[in-house]
Amino acid sequence: MKKYVHILKKTQMFSGVMDTEIASMLSCLGARLYDYKKGEYVLRRGEHISDIMVLVEGNLHIQKDDYWGSRSILGHIDVGEMFGEAYVAPESGAILNDVVAVEDSTVIFFDVKRIITTCPSACRFHALVVQNMFFAISEKNRKLVQKLGHMSKRTTREKLISYLSEEANRRSSASFTIPFNRQQLADFLSVDRSAMSNELCKMRDEGLIEFEKNKFRLL
Amino acid sequence: MKKYVHILKKTQMFSGVMDTEIASMLSCLGARLYDYKKGEYVLRRGEHISDIMVLVEGNLHIQKDDYWGSRSILGHIDVGEMFGEAYVAPESGAILNDVVAVEDSTVIFFDVKRIITTCPSACRFHALVVQNMFFAISEKNRKLVQKLGHMSKRTTREKLISYLSEEANRRSSASFTIPFNRQQLADFLSVDRSAMSNELCKMRDEGLIEFEKNKFRLL
DNA sequence: ACAAATCGGTTGTTTTTACAACAGAAAAAG
DNA sequence: CTTTTTCTGTTGTAAAAACAACCGATTTGT
């Protein structure tokens, strides 16, 4: 587990906590490490959890399949990102979505009760971690609202413009690389891939955007 | 402010905190009370805040207008509900949506720094409030994910089924009253009102649902 | 009690999307 | 290096949604 301290150090959760301190906090926070092969499920719809997880290696997708097998990718998780925090409240119900490894991945589980119950002695930085978590969840909340902003657009073009504008804005650059291929982007925005591909090309022909593979440029 | 202690007592934020304790905590938490007339804006897109708010009287909508004036209602806030928690992180940007009073309303503002910085002496229940907030934000997070679940459905009918199923499930009853009129429900699901009305009637004719005004029944 | 505004349902037209099927290019596997 | 698979763009068709316009009923305001 110690080999991932340098990853954890860069997470929002441990922001401001020293390396040595992180190592000693791991047991205090009830940390457990799990490995997943590409394609394996980290979380499944219907499960109940009381953990918050951090991805320390690999890449995960948050996805949902409906009755008829149509898949929506609700988001993706990069190394250093936290997930599962939406289901840790005592009154929270079952998990609504699947989390699946899109490449070989490693995840650290933290018992939420151990996090929010400040330990009496050892952890000097425990209160800081709680604050970090607070802000991290708050921030995630904001991102969900932002995604809802894209989804609430009526047409495929409007959704694309909303998403691409935000990416450009977030990177402070008209050129950027997105973390999705076409099918994944279509799933993310909940539209048909071919229709989206068609729309992207129309937008390119109209001089609104340029793109090559995952690299986009707004004009 | 004291007249609203009985409301605050029932909020997630002060769950488990005694009445007398709440009253004494208000100043410690930097609470301020504001009144709004119907139609007035509580928060505007582009503002920056470092407060968490609780509605203690009235009814609010979270909404967004795009360039051309098309309005999406992203959600509604009932008495006792908390909002604004998505923007309190230090690195958080400007508010993305408007919050507007749909009837005369009263809101209490809490300075987030005062909440997460546990005071050294007075507040015995401060740690509990932090935990409550933690779970509350977590829970809100889950609800956003759930709404994304509806929004990710392709057709109006699927969105309606997703929304109505969840409401029925949440109330544990096939009959329930929704907090929206037709236009508001259409805005909430980001679909056209007339098309939605049409679809609802088709579903009724097919024997899937019954409804009268805001009262629905799944069959 | 009356006038005005809002609300919900209906219909027809236009626009957009979903779906299906296919082909060339690129990437991965052997 | 060759074969297979995946990825992306293209097209045509059918289905669905958006839009606009209208009407009757209900609610609100005066």
What does this entry look like structurally?
2 copies of one chain form a homodimer. Chain A contains 7 helices and 9 strands. The first copy, chain A, is an alpha+beta fold. In chain A, strands 1, 2, 3, 4, 5 and 6 form a 6-stranded antiparallel beta sheet that branches. A 3-stranded antiparallel beta sheet of chain A has the order 7-9-8. Helices cover about 35% and strands about 25% of the residues of chain A. Chain A folds into 2 domains: about 1-135, Jelly Rolls (Sandwich); about 150-219, Arc Repressor Mutant, subunit A (Orthogonal Bundle). In chain A, strand 3 (about 50-65) and strand 4 form a beta hairpin. Chain A has helices spanning about 5-10, 20-30, 110-115, 125-150, 155-170, 180-190, 195-205; strands at about 30-35, 40-45, 50-65, 70-75, 80-85, 100-110, 175, 210, 215-219. The interface between A and B is large, with 43 and 42 residues. Chain A binds a DNA duplex (30 and 30 nucleotides) through helix 7.
Summarize the structure.
2 copies of one chain form a homodimer. Chain A is of the alpha+beta class.
Helix-strand layout with pairing:
2 copies of one chain form a homodimer.
Chain A: H1 5-8, H2 19-28, E1 32-36, E2 41-43, E3 51-65, E4 71-77, E5 82-83, E6 98-111, H3 112-116, H4 126-151, H5 156-171, E7 175-177, H6 182-188, H7 193-205, E8 209-212, E9 215-218
Antiparallel strand pairs in A: 1-6, 2-6, 3-4, 3-5, 3-6, 7-9, 8-9
The structure holds a DNA duplex (30 and 30 nucleotides).
